[in-house]
Amino acid sequence: xxxxxxxxxxxxxxxxxxxxxxxxxxxxxxxxxxxxxxxxxxxxxxxxxxxxxxxxxxxxxxxxxxxxxxxxxxxxxxxxxxxxxxxxxxxxxxxxxxxxxxxxxxxxxxxxxxxxxxxxxxxxxxxxxxxxxxxxxxxxxxxxxxxxxxxxxxxxxxxxxxxxxxxxxxxxxxxxxxxxxxxxxxxxxxxxxxxxxxxxxxxxxxxxxxxxxxxxxxxxxxxxxxxxxxxxxxxxxxxxxxxxxxxxxxxxxxxxxxxxxxxxxxxxxxxxxxxxxxxxxxxxxxxxxxxxxx
Length: 294
Known about the structure:
Layout (H helix, E strand, L loop, with lengths): L3 E8 L2 E8 L7 E4 L22 E4 L18 H14 L5 E6 L1 H10 L6 E7 L5 H12 L4 H13 L5 H14 L8 H9 L2 H7 L27 E6 L6 H10 L3 E6 L6 H4 L1 H17 L4
Parallel strand pairs: 3-4, 3-5, 5-6, 6-7, 7-8
Antiparallel strand pairs: 1-2, 2-4
Helix pairs in contact: 1-2, 4-5
């Protein structure tokens, strides 16, 4: 796509890389990637919306093309919220939509609880808004797998041998059902998993999706979702780690919340159903801008 601008923004702890795709006339959309410790997707289909509006991606500190300091004191929700504020300020965004995916929904919720100015609407994609519920939901999914997969995961986590090939193979079986159902995984998805900053992921989350031992262990935004005053769309895949039941529950706690399921996706609808994903986001953003009094 033409009209791509990128650069670096100084934030607390280092510099973060950002990219703006397109210069359409609509209100910009800012995207918060998942992880923690992952990066922006180079082939994110949301970039196609650049003809409608500027689409802004940035790699959080420690991730992707951004600086990678190894100071664990930087890996806090509060610092990531501060980084988000610094990005918004540097890009002079006065009015904008935000889409958070997975861990990005935790970051989004924490940011919204500070009552920021200028946010027109928000999208919680594959929301992880209650760490304990997330862990329970993955454990429930795990019960549907063959006994040997369950046992491998349990034994390796107990013995702390989660670096072993057996463990990685068992986890991959889980991911292929509940993270990304495209077979085989696209090259970029494989690379993203390889490039994950394990220091951040392990420190904030834990060894795997179904065992939360890190600093996010007790993260739970559900009690405060009623404070979100702008329109909010909650989306997930039918087979998502962010289960349809959990996602619909979160949507029901927001005053102006809507809920949408991608029927042929798990956690990566941008890869699994890119056309449907783009159209759902496009329709939502356009509708918010047409609202009377908005």
